[in-house]
Design brief:
It is a single chain. By secondary structure, the chain is an alpha/beta fold. It folds into 2 domains: 11-226, Glycoside hydrolase/deacetylase (TIM Barrel), CATH 3.20.20.370; 230-265, no CATH class. It contains 8 helices and 14 strands. Strands 2, 3, 4, 7, 8 and 9 form a 6-stranded parallel sheet that branches. A 3-stranded antiparallel sheet has the order 1-12-13. Strands 10-11-14 form a 3-stranded antiparallel sheet. Helix 1 (27-37) runs parallel beside helix 7.
Length: 267
Amino acid sequence: MRIVFNLYPDAKTKALTMSYDDGVASDRRLVEIFNKNGIKGTFHLNSSKLFGDGHIGINEIDKVYNGHEVSCHTLTHPFPNTMPRESLINEIYEDRKKLEEKAGYPVRGLSYPFGEYNQTVIDQFRALGIVYSRTTKSTNNYGVPEDFMQWHPTCHHSGDILKKLEYFKNPPKRVPNLMLFYIWGHSYEFNDNNNWELIEEFCEKAAGMEDVYYATNIEIYDYIVALRNLVFSVDCTIVYNPSGIPVWFTADGKKIKVEPNQTLKII
């Protein structure tokens, strides 16, 4: 019986993803910092507010967020738990529709407005094609979520991220097999708190780590789903990858890559 452990793309053991809400004008500066350091982020947008007055204009989201992910944050940023289902459906349907028209790809992710959600909200969002949604509940750890519709981040960017980065770089032996460092926030907070140097220093120190997969939220979701959908023989000597992306893991310490739709004998 082989001992199998999952890996990120290119046999990496860690992943870093960033998540920022509201589509405010200061996202431009944040994206520049990300791009300079090879960091990838997801930007959750309320399409009804994207008119360029303190926000990114909806007609420029494909350029501003190029190389990153555009994601839902509802149409108008309401409190989801208290809305009629019909209104809630409209909040997601219209937000997805407007964002997809400008981004040029299906928008499948979301962050809950005000961090508010319940099971009814989750069920409605799933029915409308949302596959993951970020909460505002910090775990202060580095695990992969069991339920992506209740995706709790590691922390807000005010949560001592430089110290957490040092732990992420040099963890003790007893950590999750796949580490995931997930930071969220609003870029306007760097203006309000006059601390852009925090995210600049973080991104500089987080850049270029050989064992880290730098990814958007949807890239993390798609990869983990592909990992979870691998089909192994009972003795783990044969594996089938039904997904459309390559997947990595170790078998008895040997790094294995399984191509899309490939059945592989593990030697």
